[in-house]
User: Fold these one by one.
Assistant:
Number 1:
Amino acid sequence: MNDVALSVIAALGVASAVAMLVWALRERSRADRAETRLSMLGDSGDLVRAQAAQSAGIVADELLKRADETFRNRDLLAQQRLETQLKPVAETLAKFEAQVQAIEKTRAEETGGLKEQITALLQASEATQGEARKLSSALRRGAGIQGRWGEQMLQNVLEMSGLAERYDFDLQPDMSTDEGRRRPDATVKIPGGGIIVVDAKCSLNAFMEAQEATDDAERAAAMARHALSIKGHVAGLSAKAYWDQFRDQTPDYVVMFIPGDGYLTGALEHQPDLFTDAMKKKVVIVTPSTLFALLKGVAYSWRAEDRFEGARKAAD
């Protein structure tokens, strides 16, 4: 039942009550006139008067009863109207409460998941710090340990790039030259029968001294020694001149692998022209990230070569 219908019913109830009151007043007036006439009749009028009084009482009771019902109906209609108006509000509040409960549940779940992730991250960080301490301790044992670690890092990058050992690259191959035997850390095969010579250089003593320095001056001096060490490795690798010894197989440069981006970044802060000087000496300095990109290009070239060879065989 809508608000308009309820309003109409309430108005009809009030109108009915007013009409009955008017009718009662008219009856009362008639009774008064009848009383006046009966007073003139004497004793016989007493009986008529009693009957009239009884009838008037019955009518009054009936009027009161109907008026009471009318007012009760009006209160009921008003209550129904109020309930109808408040029902959307109650439904909205119920939906809001459900949404709040859902949000609270989601927040509790996310908080629990976040705590687990933070705990896992802390554990991983502690494990990483532990491994870093172990690595730092191992690297301090001498140049041989550092060299083997650099060679292992080089092998990891070669394998992660999608190249296969002995098919796409060789580790520490023996290469005879006019000046004797050469043994680079790796040679990467490229389409057309060529190779790229890669040598890992990992002298980190000065770098680790810089990390443990207690003041800026000491740290700067250690990083300067680290940059000079890398520059010395560039000069030594350039002197081997692999591009002259394998002119028909290798490009006119050699790749020098540094097993960490941070090691090169620290050196560049003190030797900004390190890259330029290295390229002048036909040495390309790479780190794990840049070597990975270079090797991905080689792997793509091999896939293109395989497709071309497959197409040629199909054509034959």
Number 2:
Amino acid sequence: MIRLHEDRPQSLEKAASSCDSSCMGIQALAVAWFVALLMLGCGRGLDEARPAPAKIQGDQASPPRMFSAWYTESLDGIRQLEKRDAERLERRLAANPEDLTALLQLLAYHDRPDRRNRSEDQRKRVKLTLWLIEHHPESEILRSEMSRFNPGELDDADYRRATVLWEAATRAQPSNGAVQWNAASFFRGFDDERYLGHMEAAAVADPANPFILRPLAYFYARALIEAGPLGARAQAALDVSKNKWVLSNTANFLQGEHNRLLQMEVRNHRIAELAERYFLRAQALDPNLDRRAILPQIDLREIARAERARMEAAQDHQRQAEHASAKLRRLPIDAFPELPPTVAEALRTRNCTVPQSSVEGRQNVIRGEFFAKGETGWAAYCSANQRTALLAFRSGQDANPRSLNESEDAQYAFTLESGSVIYLRQITAVGRDFILMHYRTYGGPEPPPIDHQGIDDSFLEKASVTWYFHEGKWHELQGAD
């Protein structure tokens, strides 16, 4: 099977291994219906359709929203939900199965990064999704990530059940673009034939929706490049298509692959010819299409010059960073009189200065309960010999701190317009709410039981790592992303 799907980090490679005769019959009808409507111009004139903000269109209208205001507003506060909140939502949904707000919030809770890999949460997500397919196949929830599944998340019985439900829904509403789009979203990665059939039907029903047309064009382009059975089907559809957005986006994707291969010193005339063919078909429908935007050309000599310039700039940046490192604003230990004498002496013994993340004030020496609840310790950046280590002290009497990490100062030295140089790292003491919020938002390692503070080690405006001490060792937890 070709893998053409962009949204999920992993491709979905499970479920239906073959299509039975009834399935093939449905697909044959879908293909015939799709090609016939394409020849008629996708069912209605493009000028009468709503604005079509595909990537390379000429219109200036604002793109449609993929999700409604209700959808986005319903997801507010999902990161704060506790187990008791989910149980309350379950009771609410049991009392009123049509409460789609509660259903959406439960789906989002079970798909939250801190929960999505748990088997119990996966089972509940499957159950909610199957109910939606049966009762509301048009729901925008069904094209969201939380209603899609990875290998192992659907057993054979659930997949067969979903297939039966989608066949019934799409047969009952063949001209409903939302239903067809949702069905395609479900089968993406499971079954390329079903995915393509439903995407084509969705494009017929909604011929100016970029969220449908661009993935369909990308699928066509990849199928043409790989030149298998789906490539022949894609070519047949494109050769009769009257949808300029499908044609122009397919041409654009093909040209992108052609350019990528050129940069690898590989010339593929077939891909270039296909890109030209479908651009010309699109241009015949709309003479105002911009050739340079759809079929961007590359100059290999210019690319080589740009690469040399990039390497020279990187080397120059490294030299500047090393020079800036020597001018980095660092404070002596005496600038932090709040430090206990033992801690201050341990830092002086290591010839530490403290790099600063601003031109004023004092940063990067902090106090908190970093090793145990009720036990106050300290943490500080220690810069010596153009390198900085993060040191953690168990208490005010600790003369032997733990070194959590170490890096070259030049990596984080930044020169301001004023000429001052600051350190683009900063440490702060953080508690349970901060740690759990970031875990629920971004996933990462599951935190141990939290009863004291952690140290958030932040690369400013980029990302951070939270250090947390538990059972004798430091754990590297998810910080900001």
Number 3:
Amino acid sequence: MLNGQGGRVIFGVDQDGHVVGQTVSDKTLEQVVAEFSRIEPAVSPEVDRIPAGTGEVIVASVGRSHRRPHSYKGQAYARIGNTTVAISREQYHEMLLEAHHANQRWESEIASGWDVSDLDQSEIARTVDEAVRRGRLEEPGTRDAREMLRGLGVLTADGLLRAAVVLFARSDNLVASFPQCRVRLARFRGTDKTEFIDNRQFHGNAFTLLSRADQFLRAHLPVAGRIQAGVFERTDDPIYPPVALREALANALCHRDYSIGGGSVGIAIYDDRLEITSSGGLHFGLEVADLYRPHESLPWNPTIADVFYRRGIIETWGRGTLKMTQLTAQAGLPRPEFENSPGALLVRFRPSSYMPPKRIGHDLSQQQQDILQVLAVGGEQALQRVVATLGAGVERRSVQRDLHFLRSLDLVETVGWGRGAKWGLKHD
């Protein structure tokens, strides 16, 4: 648990999970403490005694450790579900790297041979101006490049940090010494990599790469057009939510592993999906399942991420993946898919064949649009399931009223009768 996300061990529970209690003496506590002493690096779990049944239970609690990997009797373990397994040598070294990361990050090393004159001065000024406008940086009272870089935390008394190069370097200075400051962009014909429609790559600072990627997406992503009854104009919507894609790109640029010299950020557009990859996988015990729920933000490059935040490109640390999921759901798309490997993290977006209308004779409320999206993704569903999918705070009566309204517009229909009735989209 120390090597994972933390947890509790409860003494005084039977095999079926029932709390039965046990006799707890001073010797019992001494034995528990003696076992804790075999854990290295040393820890001090919180230990509570709670009355239960005819005795007590002992609850030992630990949070997520910042000193991992921990070992017990010389062996490191991890908790996976209900099973305890020995950690492999590769996992052990990855944890050691993460433990040293706080004080020995690649982005915090001095960029040898680089000077402030090698950076894009206008990009530095734009960043400071936007940070001040958003209230995320105090007005420095000067637009001297050195003073602005000090205020952003990327210039120290020892010199320019590598983070400053990643953020602000001029493109012509990067290819030789920082080849990993690169984005690869491809549009494939069909659903595999057999044939290119367009294939490009660019070197540049993080803001330049974000702009290049955005231009490529605008040029190659189709729109989903539709004509609805009662609406005379054709409505065109991007096939993927642009804000969700920008969030994914910003995350890739902030959290990738820049120490991999041949690394990059990649965008691949296929007929049936869009994939964004970045060098380096998830760290600090974070798993793919955690990306779909609130989680602690532990950016691999906190200095770079902080500058992105100040400039307004990312809003709140730790919420990027949640925002992507929310935006795709609002657009009636499947949630993004994440694939993690030791060398890369991949985010995959898939389109939907259904685009819920915003107006069809009447303006549709946000909840009515959300209902259409729920039915588009999940198919025919009972009323209670629709309510549950929409989330906490949604009233059953309100959803029922909206469904009847949508049925009056010939957008949804009911299938079956009584308690077995289900709601679904009405197809022509």
Number 4:
Amino acid sequence: MALIDLPTKAAVKLLIALPSSVQARMVGPVPPEADDLAPEAWFLARLSRIIRDEPTTGAEMRAAFPASVALISGRFAAPITTRQITIPGNGVQPTVPARLYVPMRSTPPGPLLVYFHGGGWVVGSIDTHDLACRRLAHMSRVRILSVDYRLAPEDPFPASFDDALHAFRWAAANAADLGVDPSRIAVGGDSAGGNLAAAVAQHSRDDALAPAFQLLLYPVCDLTHDAERYPSYGRFSEGYVLTRASMDWYDEQYTPDPASRTDPRASPLLAAPAAFAGVAPAYVAVAVADPLCDEGVAYAQALSAAGVAADLQRVPHVHGFFNMGALSTGREHMTRIAGVLRAALVPATA
């Protein structure tokens, strides 16, 4: 993806700010295969052809990604306190940078969400997801520890997973320093970050301090992306922000050895049925017009089949809505996500 020039950036911002009625007239009706899609999301899907991710190299993608996110993040100002944290290495892996978000009226010890950003394990950072994490912390009144895990292709699988699991276990062990109740620590993430959160929940299930909740937003669950098993991978392969070509490229960067794509640490949906039993309750939100939709649905169903409380939400949007604060529908779904997180971790009397 080429870096977005200033005139294009200004034009896109103006288009996103147009009334939804004008947007609808510009792009026409939502196509039949995506008839549940919000008109605003369909407009963004059409607009994404201007700012879409074209796989090149990891470095070039990282240079371009922040500008794309900034176009759809909007603005947000809230009295949030942040603290930069360096999670110590454990002799096996290096230190892991992180950022702690503390909302107002957050009296310790309180709940914590350990959050893993999206970006295909190749792009994204605590900075690209800063506004979304600020919104979520403020609206849910839950502290958030956003984790800057290692990225591919420089650090391929299982580096991202190893950092994510290490970060969760470190947070649980250092709950007092974070102002956190160790019994109310959740894991969560969007897209590739949702993949990491699901895998961490499975692999820390038997820890003395296991996750209390999973917040999985349009997660990657099965890197085989079988279009027969998951029809959305074929139905929405082009034209809806995330493309099949881009997703396949991300998978190749993260798991250059195709055999590793069936490892449950990379594809948590492929874990043995017993691995699902006893994991934390989950909220799984999928975008209805997203190649990843059906594998997210399948993951929620696998949790339910194992007796785990799994709330599945089909959001009439495209991939990436967690970062879309510039859109009214993005803000609407953030409000819902914050409510779910608060209800899961904050007592009703608090």
